[in-house]
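I have a small job for you when you get a moment. Would you make up a two-line entry for one protein for me to read? No commentary is needed, just the two lines. Write everything out right here, beneath this request.
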Amino acid sequence: MNKLSQILLLICIIFNFSIIKAQDSKLDSLKNCLKTHLTDDTVKVKLLNEIVRNLYKNDTAKAYDFANKAIELSEKLNFSKGKAESLYLIGTSISYNKSDKVALDYFLKALKIAEDINNQNSIAQYLIACGVSYASIGNISEATGCYLRARKIAEELKDQSLITRSLAYLSVIYTGKGDYRKALEGYQEILRLLEKKDDKKMRSRIFINIGEIYKYQGNYLQALEFYHKALKLKEEDNEESGISLSFINIGSIYTLQGDYEKALDYQHQALKIADKINDKRLISNCYEEIGIVYLQ
């Protein structure tokens, strides 16, 4: 696996699995609120943006329509913060569908507005999004600059969530460059920051990424240890996509160890869940891993 592929894989683990999963009940509630909120004000803009946030994974076209309505109303109200968030959400939707160059344009527009109004929290958030897009198209230098700047702002704001996210992406970059010591130091720092927080999702992502590093180094026992730690957290939350991903990761280690029976068992468990939740990316990953076993 080349360095860019490593970076893209770990970005996928942090970014794609950190996207808020749309809940039908919440979406219905938001749409009902929008129907009863007849005033064209900033509250309506926020409602529209929240609908986009909960819709884009399931219906990109409708999410885009709601986002554009939010942009139009924001411009009418001169509500720059709302417009920036709408642009960011459009970029997030496009990025989820793997159009990173187009997504970057939207993230940069959102960033420019946030800088114009000096909204430091949004600046850090949008810098991270820009960094993800830059890394995905292979511009590692720009990605690193975005993450470093985001981390500096996050530390000034004392925003632990933004600190951990920016540090996580920096660690991804270090992993891709083969600087595993720096990457592991970053991940360990994140785990220390998370000690007082019950953030199972972020902890599980960090465990997966640490597991990946040990996998690259050929330290399969430690890789398995961290993949199982991630699996335990995913099972506690009954997060099926995360459970499937953990099974894929564990199975890949058994493939590398030559234990093909165990490898296939884990990949088929992963595939069963991926089919159940109709996650095409996970389904593709499962078949790829199963194919690797049969090629041995």
About this structure: Residues 60-77 form the longest helix (18 residues). The domain at 3-197 is CATH 1.25.40.10 (Serine Threonine Protein Phosphatase 5, Tetratricopeptide repeat). The two ends are 17 Å apart (CA to CA).
